[in-house]
Write a structure and sequence with these properties.
CATH architecture of the largest domain: 3-Layer(aba) Sandwich
Structural class: alpha+beta
Helix content: 55-70%
Radius of gyration: 26 Å
CATH topology of the largest domain: Glutaredoxin
Strand content: 5-15%
Number of strands: 5
Number of domains: 2
Length: 249
């Protein structure tokens, strides 16, 4: 990794030693280049903190560039993120901040975030919350998302929320048997729910979310959009509250 930083540091070291106009690598002889390399090596061995400082500056610049790029992606896809017409919307529908979560029911970090997101929304009272069904971790993930979407289509938003909460905390295997029992627990006909899970209407929701994720360069869960900011990965409750506060200025 250090090799990628060597030449810029070498140039900077040489520039610090004298006027910029006096340094011309192209005009160096082989012997001069060897001496120059030895001098740079000696300097860096004596001052290794320079490498750490340079790496930290580069990492910070890359993080700033990534955040700016993510904001552009959010702005360009705002309608699909915040008003797609099919995703479940909870929290305060008139909230001043919209929080979107791309989630997978089998994702350990999504499960860890679930209670914290719920606490954030309940304690804040002014956050609009949207769930994007984004199954990426195999057949059980796909079955779980299909079940949740089918419940929403059959029974509406309130029962979807119950299904969502049960699925994200499900400890056993998500299969036809366990999902049939969950349908019964929710007061629904398991046969009708399982049949609805395999319809084109349900597939279209999942396909649309995957297409949006590709455009947004989202490849993992959980991924959050908070206002105009994207958070790639799990963030503890305190950090989420800071992001929300930052969005409000």
């Amino acid at each position: 990794m250090l090799r990628r930083y060597f030449f810029p540091l070498a140039v900077a070291t040489a520039l610090a030693a004298g006027p910029a106009a006096a340094f011309d690598p192209a005009s160096m002889s082989a012997a001069e280049r060897a001496d120059f390399g030895a001098a740079v090596r000696e300097y860096l061995l004596a001052n290794p903190e320079v490498l750490v400082e340079a790496i930290n500056v580069l990492d910070a610049r890359q993080a700033q560039a990534a955040a700016a790029s993510d904001k552009d992606l959010v702005a360009a896809n705002a309608a699909a993120l915040f008003d797609d017409g099919y995703s479940w919307v909870g929290g305060n529908p008139d909230g001043d901040i919209t929080l979107v979560e791309f989630t997978d029911y089998r994702c350990g970090y999504c499960r860890q975030a679930h209670a914290e997101v719920a606490e954030l929304i309940a304690s804040d009272g002014n956050i609009r919350f949207i769930v994007k069904e984004f199954p990426i971790l195999g057949p059980e993930s796909d079955l779980s998302s299909r079940f949740a979407i089918a419940i929403k289509l059959i029974a509406g938003d309130d029962l979807y929320k119950q299904a969502h909460d049960r699925l994200i905390t499900l400890r056993g295997t998500a299969n036809e048997e366990s999902l049939s029992q969950l349908a019964l627990d929710l007061g629904q006909d398991p046969v009708a729910v399982l049949a609805r899970m395999n319809t084109d209407e349900v597939s279209a929701v999942i396909d649309s979310n995957h297409a949006l994720a590709r455009i947004m360069q989202i490849s993992g869960t959980p991924t959050f959009v908070v206002g105009d900011e994207m958070l790639r990965g799990y963030l503890p409750l305190a950090g989420m509250r800071q992001v929300v506060a930052g969005q409000r200025g």
